[in-house]
Structures are given as structure tokens and as C-alpha cells.
Design brief:
Length: 97
Amino acid sequence: MKLRFTPAAEADLKALARNAGLRKRLKSVQKALGQLELSVRHPSLQTHKYQSLKGLHGEDVFEAYAENKTPAAYRIFFFYDSKERGVIWILAITPHP
């Protein structure tokens, strides 16, 4: 899969990178993004459909775990590009809502 980032997701990733106290979380997010590129069905991602959001053109949004069993664990929200096969858009990278 090819990853593309919305401006909001890019800002989320940059904010993580700027905060020295969140380096461990940044590493977890980077690892999860790498796994998403290889397979969105990787077991550690625990990918599932997220009901409360829609993509830029009404696409289904999915949630993948960057962390688990951690307070305010980070999640990656993404959707499949409706026009270009093999592309997923990262919508947000954020602590569990």
C-alpha cells in the first residue's frame, strides 16, 4: 500500500516528532505506519472500521492501533482512496478518543 497523509495527519506526525517526551510514541506510530504499508491486516494493528468518521469523499474510515494497553494509546485513522487502487490516506494520528 502507498500511504498519503492529509494535512491534519501530517501536522499530527510533526507534533509527535517535535515533542521529545513523546519519542517512544513516535517510534510506535512509525512502526505501525510501516506495517500499514505492508498489510493493513497485520495482527498487531487490530484494524477495524470506525463508525463515527467518513473519508474526504464519504469513504469508510478504519482505525489501526499504534499502541495498545497504554493510557491514551495512539491510533491511526485511515481510509482507502476511492480512485487510486493501492493507496490509503492517513486521516489522523491521535490518542485514543
